Amino acid sequence: MLAERTLGRTKLAVTSVGLGLAAVGRPAYITLGRDEDLGGDRSVATMRARSWAVLDAAWAAGVRYFDAARSYGRAEEFLAGWLNDRGIAPGAATIGSKWGYEYVGGWRMDAERHEVKDLSPAQLHRQLDETLGLLGPHLSLYQIHSATVESGVLDDDDVLGALSTLRAEGVAVGLSTTGPRQADTIDLAVDTGVFDTVQSTWNLLERSAGPALARAHAAGLGVIVKEGVANGRLTPRAAPAPLEAAARERGVPADALALGAVLARPWVTTVLSGAASTAQLRDNLEAVTVAWDDGLAERLDAMTEDPDLYWATRGSLAWA
């Protein structure tokens, strides 16, 4: 059963598991096994139909947080079309999106580059207008996409001022983080006092952001966890032996156990499923049935990787 929770100091209602649309909004992504998941037909019409099928299954299961981004190909477009076609009123679901990357892949599998990062104030204003043009009153949360300390975006008064204005107009604001120094970014974001939420990578392989996320939670921010199955590395097709064995003993898929580990953190508000199919979503949602205990934690602690190694491995994954 999905638990309903309040997203930090906002009044936004989310569920313990949300749905991220990175895997179904564009033809290529860095999740393992996409040929098996999607087959060869990655046309716009086919991907739209796939995204709607996953959205329908998520809605039927009680999922009420949906996460997109400007760089997720046509994810915002697909989501907006689904919301309107299904007659879902603004506020019936919490809808988040992100700015800062632009999709430049041209709907090609073999594109030289699929996205380009730009965290300038001009990009914020342009992409916010594009997002509002699609999602309009459905937009509940707008986030910086992959903020880092090095990018300087958290020291940019124009960006912070524009986000504060958006917040005053009733849209919550947040950020997502990336890289081996996520903790530094999270702490800096909390110190600004501007943000309502933080979305970060935490999984059984990459746990370094945990203490900073606990601090963010204590400061009143909603905590959204992404990449809980490590872009497919913690799913049945690639699970390390200890996770595979523990999942078999518990009678759940490896991805459900991995997401269950996330939900066991007391500072987590919601964890995102990145399912590309209804079958994957069904497996992911079994995470809510996982009974986490100290024995299980001890067995899986050895899976943790050095953050630099983890992010180097992630950076080497092919777009497919």
TrEMBL record:
Residues 48-303 form the NADP-dependent oxidoreductase domain. Pfam families: Aldo_ket_red. This is Oxidoreductase.
